[in-house]
Design goal:
With 195 residues, the chain is mainly α. The protein has nine helices and no strands. Helices cover 85% and strands 0% of the residues. One of its GO terms (molecular function) is antiporter activity.
Length: 195
Amino acid sequence: KLTHLGPVLSASLPAIINNAAAPIAAALQLGLLGHSTNAANRVAAWSAVGAVTTFVTNVANFVIVVTMARVGHALGSKQWSLLGSTVRAVLTVAVLVGGVCALALWLGRAPLFSLLSLTSAPLDSIASGYLPLALARLPPLLVLKAASSVLVGYQRVRAASMLNLALAVADTIAFYVVLHALSGGLVALGATLAS
């Protein structure tokens, strides 16, 4: 019935925000990038590198699934001592998995760029400038996803949604500042991060 639609939408809103925040931020960043100098090449490099890091993040999703299951189990069985050590272990594993993934992608950047057709100028220099930033984001991104899953495991879906929304807003603002306000561009940003 329509009378029950309101409570369903109200209960679903945190999950909708949780799932929509990152794609909306990516779309806004893409729009900002599309209005920059040399937009077509920047969009191509940003999209290719972003697709790889998103793929790696999604493959590493096992950290998130295990987190929610373990936290939910410890919470449900009221094993309070296990709960704290589980959260610490999950956050540590998220940092390690993010670091290993970033290192593997950095070491394999030449074949990766070849596979993504980023070997010709100016795409190679643009992608080379963006890659360090994208890889530096992997460990914190996985920690955020793990922390969000911990909150969901604690049945704090609204808090997890607000955390993800805040990250998406901060990420988009930082992207704008680096690209437009500082006029740094992807290459300058990557060079700054690499030094």
